[in-house]
Amino acid sequence: MATATQELQKKEATSPEGVEYTSSRKVFTPAVDIIEQKDRTILIADMPGTDEKSVDITLEKNVLTIYGKVEPLVPEKHGLVFSEYGIGDYHRAFTLSNEVDRNRIEATVKNGILKLVLPKAEAAKARKIAVRAEA
Amino acid sequence: MLLSDLVRFGRYLDPWSEFEKMNRTLSGLSSPSGREFPAVNVWKGEDHAVVTAEIPGINPQELDISVAGKALTLRGARSPEKAAEGDTFHRRERWYGKFTRTLDIPFDVDADKIEARFIKGVLYIALPRAEADKPRKISIKSE
User: Fold this and answer.
1) From CA B123, how far away is CA B65, in angstroms rounded?
2) Which residues in chain B have Cβ-Cβ distances shorter than 8 Å to A79?
3) Model-level ipTM above the cut of 0.85
4) Which residues of A touch B100 (CB under 8 A)?
5) Which of chain A's ends, N or C, has fewer CB atoms near its CB within 10 Å?
């Protein structure tokens, strides 16, 4: 079994108060890993049912929004008799700091996993300042 | 006949209604999350059942699917994201680890004809009912 302490169930996305989704389909919050490396930040999201064509990533001002549309693959002439998970879209938004180089963001989707590489802007990279001994 | 009797009788006839109860018992309710991993959906057709599970990121070659009679077992693992020295995890919500899940299908499965597909991180297993297990229609002859 996977780690017991982690929440394994899909979580339905909560929209800000007063704001609703126009379609009635379910929307889930994908689980993510965010790893900061020396010169980039990597965001990995579990979005089963999506591929490179069905994921939309938008960056407006500082807000990075991920939306994955899922077309449910329902077996023909079959009825659902037992259900432990819901099927729906994915939606999650993050506020980025200014240090991301917006032009070089890369996104890939493989086996239902979205991987976003957010390179750090030149200015934000930590610079080592050499300390010289005074003559 | 009371309505409750009807309901009970109706349920008794349908093996699928017992499905959830059985699988709950099999999985054991002792696990902290209350449910086993991966979560599955089961679809029923005329003489097929389709089991689907969302297990993104696993290598389909490393997923082990086995059937013994009525029991379907899924075994697999996903390794955690590797972090090099100096990397910091801001968030770590995704699951990783090994999993085993056994489901009891309410009919004998024809193990040779099982088809499994892995599409966009979702596993689909089509389980045909074994020929010997199919219900037979008995015709009544009139004298």
Assistant:
1) 11
2) 43-45
3) no
4) 1
5) C
